[in-house]
Design goal:
Radius of gyration: 24 Å
Helix content: 40-55%
Strand order of the largest sheet: 2-3-6-1-7
Distance between the termini: 55 Å
Low-confidence stretches: 1-10
Amino acid sequence: MPEKKGLENFTELKFEAPEQWPEQVEFVAVLKEVNELIKKFVSMKGAQRLLVSQWVVSTWFVDHLDYLPYLLITSPTKRCGKTKLLKVLAEIVRFPVMSGDLTAAATFRVMAKDCPTLLMDEADRYLNSRLDFASILNCGNSRDGRVLRTAINANGNYGGEIVAFSCFGFKAIAGIKASKISDTLTDRSIVIELVRKTKQMERCRLKQFKEQCEILRRKLFTLAQQHGADVFTLINKGDMVFPDDLNDRQMDNIEPLWAIAECCADPRTVEKIKEASRRVLTKTEALSQTEAVRLLRDVYVIVKDYPQTSISTEDLLAELRKDPTWVELSAKKLSLFMGEFEIQTFQNSQLNNKRCYRTDKLINAYKRYR
């Protein structure tokens, strides 16, 4: 018979660290175990699965981090394994709290208690309709992220005291087309796109792996005890090297994952994690960009090696319209989009007074806003 559980309220949420593993823990072996466990239940690309596994490891290092990435789990339709992945994560992340429906008030009160890992299911159903969630998620990836609320006194009334609640902590957020919920949420996340399992994949029950998960939790806790101080030191030295094509937010997102790998893994594994990060972040960047930024990116591809110092609106549109995305783009709409980046056309006397854009301004705008 299934075990019957009573309803738990916030005051009954308790988080206890597992016992330490009695032996030295090898990072690569533990990462492989996590990867293989996830692979049994959910279908995703190898690079994504490796990054999810590294994210799981990172949750145990939260006390040594000042910035962290969310995990945004999305799929084009239902029955692709989003809830299943959250249930697997709930067995192996640090201090999991899983919910299919949350209020903003419950969220920041939970996060302020021992910095748990919040696992939010069916977020596409409620995040957009609860606007006060935005501030919590927008600041919750940084240790100094706070929301201010009026305190409630012993009589249940609002008093004059203002209380600052920490929102900081790892969060996995799952929903159908979840990457479209919010640009700012996507920007703070590692986006994982799930697909339906093939019929050839073996059907497993998570309860069969309870003992393995308990051992994994102990090993992950011990791994953080072994290397946490080294990770903190490496990050705060501020001399980690990132590819030039990553923006500041992407660096913040992957810094803890890379720092943990560099402190715990061999060079070959470190490079695998970095390569997986680059692949996933490239796709995430495309998902998080607004239409204007996507247009600016495509303009940059056209003009970065352009032989002239300016390009006419007519020629730029002709190049852009080769992509079906921009086939209906007009000169007026192009001008409005570029205006968002403070780029204006000028009348070029050398090109029969055609309206033109300076290529250096287009290139500099892309480098600033990418």
